[in-house]
Amino acid sequence: MTSINKDSINNTATRNEREPEAFNETILACIDGSNVTQSVCDYAAWYANELNLPVSLLHVIDVPKSYRHDLSGAIGMDSRHSLMQELTTLDEQTARIANQHGEALLQDAKAHILISYPQANVYSHLRRSKLLPAIEHHVDKSRVIVLGRRGKDHQNDYVNIGSQIESVVRAVNRPILVCSDGFITPESFMVAFDGSETAKKVVDIVCENNIAKNLVGHIVMVGHKDTVNETELYKAQKKMSDAGFNITAHFIDSTKMDHADVVSALTAFRNDNNISMFVIGAYGHSKWRRFFVGSTTTKLLTKTTAPVILLR
Questions:
Q1: All residues at 6 or more sequence positions from 236 whose CB lies less than 8 Å from its CB, including other chains
Q2: Alpha-carbon distance 88 to 310, whole Å?
Q3: What tens digit of pLDDT does each residue of 115-142 get?
């Protein structure tokens, strides 16, 4: 079998499936073979179909560092040479297997998408990297990035968000759709609104989204019911209504609710009203402040299995 240079796949699309220059934007779907891979493909394909854009499938190979170690002085010269050769061969085999597995995973994902959307343009990218640098390589041409809530290494964990989601969201200025197992065609959405500048920016971004205009919208505020908060909520509702949205405003008075916190109230509202997905401003505070006050974004991701669109 021909040896494969493990660095040769750093920047290549599998089987020369590069996006034609005619496509200025794609929907970037990050897959890793975990239980959520099929859901990631389905949501990416749905989004791409609604916008008439291609799907770019991205699989990142994060192979551990070389097994080779500093053997100087540990054993004899001949033994060191023989062992180094064996370890080099092992590195090459590991890279080859990872490459073959990645190719197969991308092919299966593409075939899955084409079953539901046979007219779709689907392109595949296999990169040897960490997730964030790989996404940053493609971000300029990505309209939306779709991630699974749980990565392969965390798919059985109780806290079911992948360890890299926050890093990606903080670094990448693109909408990110985080999904779990099981695809359901979205019919509605809810914007979590708190009157902050981040929340107002979310409303502005949603107003530019043509897909959302085809869905039933809800904008929900949890807080102390006073004139200031109500005014901010209904100003946001009017802005979305004027932009052509079917949008209803809801105020949950925090002094009268039965829920322990804002996130519990939001998830309960979503469940009671069978809303398809959340839209929320992502990580409005610095990591340092988050250490002290926590993160509504992270709490929401851990408390719901509904897809969440994160906007910055």
A1: 191, 193, 199, 200, 203, 219, 249
A2: 43
A3: 999 999 999 999 988 899 999 999 999 9
Closest CA to 216 of 194, 193, 247: 247
Q: What pLDDT digit, counting tens, does each position of 53-109 carry?
A: 999 999 998 766 554 455 555 555 566 667 777 777 777 787 788 889 999 999 999
CATH of domain 12-65+95-179: 3.40.50.620
Same fold for the pair 12-65+95-179 and 188-311:
yes
Residue 184, amino acid: I
At how many degrees (to 10) do helices 77-116 and 37-51 cross? 50
For 254-307, the pLDDT digits (tens) are: 878 777 788 899 999 999 999 999 999 876 554 443 433 347 778 888 888 899
Q: How far is CA 185 from each of CA 114, 178, 215, 236, rounded to the nearest angstrom?
A: 16, 15, 11, 26
Domain chopping of the chain, boundaries: 12-65+95-179, 188-311
- Taking alpha carbons only, the member of 1, 9, 4 closest to residue 102 is 9
Taking alpha carbons only, the member of 259, 23, 31, 266 closest to residue 125 is 31
CATH number (3.40.50.620, 3.40.50.300, 3.10.290.10, 3.30.70.260) of 188-311 reads 3.40.50.620
Distance separating alpha carbons of residues 28 and 13, to the nearest angstrom:
13
**CB-based contacts of 258: which residues, under 8 Å, 6+ apart?**
none
Q: How far apart are the first and last CA of the chain?
A: 48
